[in-house]
Write a structure and sequence with these properties.
Elements (H helix, E strand, L loop, with lengths): L6 H14 L11 H40 L4 H10 L6 H10 L1 H14 L1
GO molecular function: rRNA binding; structural constituent of ribosome
GO biological process, one term: translation
Protein name: 50S ribosomal protein L20
Length: 117
C-alpha cells in the first residue's frame, strides 16, 4: 500500500481551529485538541444563547410594562387583556419602549383603554 502524506491538509485544519481559538485563555488557544474542545463548547453556547437572548428581551419588556401599568393602577395581564379587547395591535417591544421613553403617550394609551372598557 502506498503512503499518503497529509502534512499540508492536517496543518491547514489545525491552523483553522487555532485561528478560531484566538483570545481563549491559556492552552485553549495554543493546543489543538483543547482548542477544538473549547470551540465546540463555544459554538454550542452561542447557538443556545442566541435564542435565550430573545427570551430575556421579552422578559425585560414585560417587566417595564408591568412596572408602568402598576403605577397607573392595573397589572400587566389585565392591561394586555384590555389591549386585545379594544383591538389595539401593539407588541411588547413597542409598549415597553413607550413605557420607558415616552410615558405621556403610554398614559394616553392607558386612559384610552380605560374609557373603552
Amino acid at each position: 500500500m502506498t503512503r499518503i502524506k497529509r502534512g499540508i491538509v492536517a496543518r491547514k485544519r489545525r491552523k483553522h481551529v487555532l485561528f478560531f481559538a484566538k483570545g481563549f485563555r491559556g492552552s485553549s488557544s495554543q493546543l489543538y485538541r483543547i482548542a477544538q474542545q473549547r470551540i465546540n463548547k463555544a459554538l454550542i453556547y452561542s447557538y443556545r444563547d442566541r435564542r435565550k437572548k430573545k427570551q430575556e428581551f421579552v422578559q425585560i419588556w414585560i417587566s417595564r410594562i408591568n412596572a408602568t401599568v402598576r403605577n397607573l393602577g392595573l397589572n400587566y395581564s389585565l392591561f394586555q387583556n384590555k389591549l386585545k379587547k379594544s383591538q389595539i395591535i401593539l407588541n411588547r417591544k413597542v409598549c415597553g419602549q413607550l413605557a420607558l421613553k415616552d410615558i405621556n403617550s403610554f398614559e394616553k394609551l392607558f386612559n384610552n383603554l380605560q374609557i373603552k372598557n
